[in-house]
Amino acid sequence: MRREEIIELENFFKEYLRSERLDLVEFIYRYEGRNLILRLLIDKPEGGIILDECAELNNKIGRILDEKNLIQDNYILEVSSPGLDRPLKTRNDFSRCINRQVKFFLSETINGKIEIDGIIKEVQEEAVSVDSQNGIILIAFSKINKAKQII
Predict the structure, then answer these.
(1) Pick from 60, 80, 100: which residue ends a domain?
(2) Contacts of residue 67, Cβ cutoff 8 Å, sequence gap at least 6
(3) What is the pLDDT of residues 67-76, one digit of tens each?
(4) Which of 19, 22, 27, 143 has a CA that sits 20 to 30 A from residue 43's CA?
């Protein structure tokens, strides 16, 4: 698939899931042999999607992809929950984790550290405020490579 087709497909998934009041947490695509693997990690805005909902969505989305003939290659569609240790990517993801322990992996050091653990206290427009061992730290979203709630 060309990059434009992948972007178009991801936008289709986001739009469809939004209409179902769901969030696309992550869209992963890759080839395994001759098959294109499409993996959608989805969740409810408040969290807590269950296996039966994922299976139902897998069937619905598969039918729509086939009806609209959006993918020319052989593909395998996998719709699943991101799990408890899902990556935090959006402002909403961080907001959902206020007062929870999170591990941040940074693109540049803050106070000499590239990894910071702490409790999210506040989510601002461009940054997240974290209560760490070294006190309150403000981490800009642009400096976060990866973040995960610590379970």
Answers:
(1) 80
(2) none
(3) 988 888 889 9
(4) 143
57 within 8 A of 43, measured Cβ to Cβ: no
What are residue 128's DSSP bridge partners?
Answer: 123, 139
> Residue 120 above 80 pLDDT?
yes
In degrees, rounded to 5, the angle at the alpha carbon of residue 85 between the alpha carbons of residues 94 and 7 is 70
Q: Pairing relation of β-strands 23-32 and 35-43?
A: antiparallel
DSSP, collapsed to helix, strand or coil, labels residue 131 as strand
Q: Which two tokens stand for residue 23?
A: 């969030």
Q: Are residues 63 and 121 in the same domain?
A: no
User: Helix 51-68 crosses helix 3-19 at what angle (to 10 degrees)?
Assistant: 130
